[in-house]
Amino acid sequence: MTRQVFALILAGGSGTRFWPLSRNEKPKQLLKLFDDETLIEKTVNRLEGLVPIENIVVLTNEAQVPGIRAALPSLPEKNIIAEPARRDTGPAVALAAGWVAARDPEAVMMVLPADQLITDNAGFQSILRSACIAAGATQSIVTLGIKPDWPCPGYGYIERGETVSINAAGIEHSVVKVKQFREKPTPELAEQYLEAGNFSWNAGIFIWSLSTLTTELQMHSPELFQFVSDLSSTDDFNTFVKQNFETLTKVSIDYALMENASQVYNIEADVGWDDVGGWPSVAKYFPQDDEGNAIRGTGTVVDSTNNIALSTGQKQIALLGVDNLIVVETEDSILVADRRKADDIKKLVEKLPENLL
């Protein structure tokens, strides 16, 4: 790749579905759910050899900055930026684009969530490299889609069209035209998408050149375009952000740009991707017994099926005659929930005392 490549890692989420392990200052991306690495460490480490560490910027909130610095000691301190207010992914992307444009307005930039699991790092890098080349060689936006293996109603979908071959530096790179972005479907519609065979899960991973991004923002989101333009030329980055970021309209990058962009391509990836949306997602990677009980830590199970149990301390979790439970023990809290209501843990969190958030 002849152009410089930068990476924006979006790390401002709260991850409330992982309470009581997840807290305001230690959300999902700062948890060690699978091994001794946090999810954000995994996200940064899988870019090694593709994006220089000084070209990686992490966007988060003030409460999470200390945790991110501790998790990523090799990342320059100035590359961790705390948003002054929550304004969704549209303004977040604009903030990072201004930061990148001040360093190299000709760069290619990728956007990555901080809290996804990808087990095939080599395959992922290969796809990202092709996406960067395609984005740099054309005035297009490239998205990564995940090949679906079941009709999930909880993901957004990308409807894929015809295959296009892009020649860059004498090498052919195949991409697929995006026909339409689809919102989270009903279970019935998700079944139809899977049967059709031309739909990918939307992983929220985007690649574009700075020139393409600013051109598209100028057409479809003038407010964000102006913010990027002014931020890239300011002499006082931090002051400008503090004074102006909070005034931006709260909008996702999907609505602000992706659904209206003039030319969007997709590359489908089969790289062991998991969005790690809640305890049932993580439980797939825990040791499991013959009755479907997934246990991490110390636990004893008798006459019980399909439970998830996580003990973070020395306490023993003992399950007798129960099914479909989530039991998570931490130093100050114990969660007992119906596994089928895992997505509703965030509703529980809204009612908890402040000292447990």
Describe what this molecule looks like in 3D.
The chain has 357 residues and is of the alpha/beta class. It has two domains: 5-274, Spore Coat Polysaccharide Biosynthesis Protein SpsA, Chain A (Alpha-Beta Complex), CATH 3.90.550; 279-356, no CATH class. The chain is 28% helix and 27% strand. It has helices spanning 39-45, 65-71, 89-101, 121-137, 187-196, 210-220, 222-233, 237-244, 253-258, 279-283, 345-349, and strands at residues 5-10, 56-61, 80-83, 108-113, 117-118, 141-146, 157-168, 171-182, 199-209, 264-269, 273-274, 294-296, 299-302, 308-311, 317-320, 325-329, 334-338. The strands form four sheets. Strands 6-9-7-8-10 form a five-stranded mixed barrel. Helix 3 (89-101) runs parallel beside helix 7 (222-233) and helix 6 crosses helix 7. The chain is globular. The mean pLDDT is 94.
What are the salient characteristics of this protein?
28% helix; 17 strands; globular; single chain; 357 residues; four-stranded mixed sheet; alpha/beta; five-stranded mixed beta barrel; Spore Coat Polysaccharide Biosynthesis Protein SpsA, Chain A
